[in-house]
Amino acid sequence: MKPVVILREELLEAFKTCQEKINAAEPGDFVPLTKEEWEAFTTAAIIQKGETNASQLH
Hints:
Blueprint: E1 3-6, H1 12-24, H2 35-43, E2 45-48
Antiparallel strand pairs: 1-2
């Protein structure tokens, strides 16, 4: 099951970059993020398709 990411459109590229940095990191690594990447990372709502109905999000 793949996650669904809900995010403001203007932060989409920053979120993708952030995701790439996190995926490339090894355990124990620090992952430096830009201000925009941090905003995207902390404001994204990530749900597992099938587990949460959109009407249940608040």
